[in-house]
């Protein structure tokens, strides 16, 4: 007879970029809501997903008042090493969950971010040197952010099943927030049906 009793936990976790649960970590002018999006949290709650908040590499490395950066400014040995350290801690959690039969359902991140973009990041060779009045929207390109690259490498090196990665398109100001939420909820619904 097992001494371990079951309780109500779903044993399903989604790893979430820090800025999605605390928009105060975003660079100025890019926050689309006050503190966190209740709508995003409601979607996760609807499917009984536990949330594991990942640290914000940008905030920890450069602080809250940092200038906007593009991926090419962050793509250096020192910052990658820093991101890898954060990735190691997060994959430690994933591995611990796997050992107990839990499932990392997905990694939810912020598309357009130079560090946390999944399919959309930023690059512009004009960024660098003294701050200039540049439009971040003009720097958005297809690609993956530095931290997400390091996180995926760490998962692969450990031999853990790679969870699906999803980037909320919050850094695309022209895209209505309702459409962003609708696409995200469809992604989660499809995952939970699989």
UniProtKB/TrEMBL annotation:
Its name, as the record gives it, is: DUF523 domain-containing protein
Q: Which InterPro entries match?
A: TudS-rel
Species source reads Anaerotruncus massiliensis (ex Liu et al. 2021)
């Amino acid at each position: 007879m097992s001494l371990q009793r079951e309780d109500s936990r779903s044993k399903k976790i989604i790893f979430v970029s820090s800025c999605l649960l605390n928009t105060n970590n975003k660079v100025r002018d890019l926050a689309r809501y006050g503190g966190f999006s209740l709508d995003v949290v409601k979607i996760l709650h609807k499917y009984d997903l536990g949330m594991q908040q990942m640290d914000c590499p940008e905030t920890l490395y450069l602080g809250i008042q940092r200038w906007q950066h593009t991926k090419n400014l962050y793509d250096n040995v020192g910052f990658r090493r820093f991101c890898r350290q954060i990735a190691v801690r997060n994959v430690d959690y994933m591995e611990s969950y796997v050992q107990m039969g839990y499932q990392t359902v997905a990694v939810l991140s912020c598309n357009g971010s130079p560090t946390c973009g999944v399919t959309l990041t930023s690059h512009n060779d004009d960024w660098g040197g003294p701050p200039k009045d540049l439009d971040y929207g003009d720097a958005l390109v297809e690609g993956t952010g530095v931290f997400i690259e390091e996180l995926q490498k760490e998962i692969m090196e450990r031999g853990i099943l790679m969870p699906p990665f999803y980037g909320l398109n919050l850094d695309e100001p022209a895209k209505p927030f309702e459409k962003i939420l609708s696409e995200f909820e469809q992604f989660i619904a499809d995952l939970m049906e699989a």
